[in-house]
Amino acid sequence: MRELAYDGIGKWIRLNWKRPVPLWLFLIGMLATASAITGVILLPSVLGPKPDFTISSLQPIYVQGSHFNTTLITIQAIRDFTGIVTVTTSSPTGLTTSLRDSYGNPKDQILLGKSGNITLSVGDQTIGNFVVIVTASSGAIRHTQSLQVIAQDLIMSASPSPLAITRGSSRTAELDLSSVNGFSGNVSFSTRVYGSASAYLDTLSSASPNPTSIILSPGGTGKIALTISVGQSDTSSSLNVQVFALRQLWQFELDIQVTVT
User: Fold this and answer.
1) What percent of the chain has pLDDT over 90?
2) Fold (CATH) for 52-152
3) Would strands 61-64 and 141-159 be described as parallel, antiparallel, or unpaired?
4) pTM for the structure as a whole
5) How many angstroms separate the CA atoms of 147 and 70, rounded?
6) What span, in angstroms and rounded, lies between the C-alpha atoms of 240 and 257?
7) How confident is the model over 168-196, as pLDDT tens digits?
């Protein structure tokens, strides 16, 4: 809209008037500006890292043939994560797994604060190398770790077996040892002698290994001599000699039957 105005010195001038901004348009502009500012403030929290958790690294574990071993699984909260985490395992044929608490009771869930633990028990039915997949999940969050399991064994045999020993004399048997799937270390030997039809130790006869320990290399073999002596006053008609091969917490057993003549 244009109008004329007198300037006081004999001239008329033309005025240009702009239309006022409507109130509704002004309010929309304010809201848009406020939304943009709020978005800038909230965007990092919306798109930034969210609460999470991790599974501790799992070191390879060794399992004695037909026995169990355990490892501790630790779940660690990240960025103040809280909630229930469910732990599951997937194992190949030949292994059995179970999840338990520190008291040995079945457990597969952790109410996570800062961190929580659960015990994984692994047992082997066959010798070999295996991988167990450990999965921890809570809602849409899911993490996995791989656990390498090495199942080993020690094979022992005696020759000759069974033995026939005259009362009051002794005889020596040779024990052969073979490492299976990398079994190795310092192996020590001990024995027990039981009399016929008796659950009690026979103290009148004895069995002595020589040497009393050997160092077995992975995949290696070894030999020891076992001298069995039958006491002159031992009235047993037969003896059961138990030979134990010990490496740390692992124990292997061989039974040798002796006929007393």
Assistant:
1) 73
2) Immunoglobulin-like (2.60.40)
3) parallel
4) 0.74
5) 11
6) 5
7) 999 999 999 999 999 999 999 999 999 97
